[in-house]
Amino acid sequence: MTQDLYNKIIIAWIVLGAIVFLINLRIVAPYGRHASKKWGLLINNRLAWIIMECPVLLIVIYFVLPKYESLSMVVWILFLLFTAHYINRTFVFPFRIKAGSKKMPLGVMLLAVLFNVANGFFIGYYLGNFTGYDSSWLLSLPFIAGAILFITGAFINLRADSLLIGLRKEGQTGYSIPNGFLFNRISCPNHFGEMIEWSGYALMSYNLPALAFAVWTMANLIPRALAHHKWYIAHFDEYPINRKAFLPGIW
Ligand code: NDP
After folding, report:
1. CA–CA separation, 192 vs 196, rounded Å?
2. 197 within ligand 1 shell (Cβ under 6 A)
């Protein structure tokens, strides 16, 4: 594929991400606390996470690793950060959650597979074929600032997910009000951290597929954080009124 054609496709993908954002504001993705039987067959929650996150990891590895002899240091770093995130999300996170016998609609899982296959293809294909970074990019402002944002976002995301998972004892499936860390300011620091992480990745990569991935992450997670926040207020009379959804003090 020529880079020109690739760029046209990815711009269309970014526009689609913006449309999906508007749709997600109206239709809450029905998994976790918003789960619904209306979306067809149900599948074990843990298994669904593994199946839906696996493709992105495999596809990126498929496109990048065969080129290992010619990869620049920058591409190695971008590849390793990306795969580290997805190794956690695919093979660690699903075994940490306390899901009991909770299930996820198959339709949600299939949509997530589609999202992950497309993003895995765009990022993997780009890193394997088009990158022309030289080593001076490692000392550039976008790379350094982006790396700091990526690490900060990953830390916030991991810490917040750990605190949420720790709210339940083994076998429990109910919800309680999370407190401490950034939870004192916002309802969904895990989503906030993930958005910072991929915005940082887009900055340090400075390419269209990483930008597309950040846009799609926001398209998924801003509406989800808003829905979670609304859900907390509706279900807990004592929910702290000064807490925002995902942007401290703002939104
Ligand atoms: P949630 O915050 O909905 O849930 C995270 C885990 O914590 C789940 O196991 C959930 O249980 C549990 N949990 C959440 N809140 C409570 C509570 N108040 N009391 C007890 N347990 C709780 O996160 P998501 O499922 O939306 O996402 C999981 C991870 O995946 C996040 O890190 C997110 O950033 C990431 N993600 C990334 C996307 C992207 O586009 N890049 C898209 C979607 C998710 P239960 O499932 O039973 O509700």
Report:
1. 6
2. no
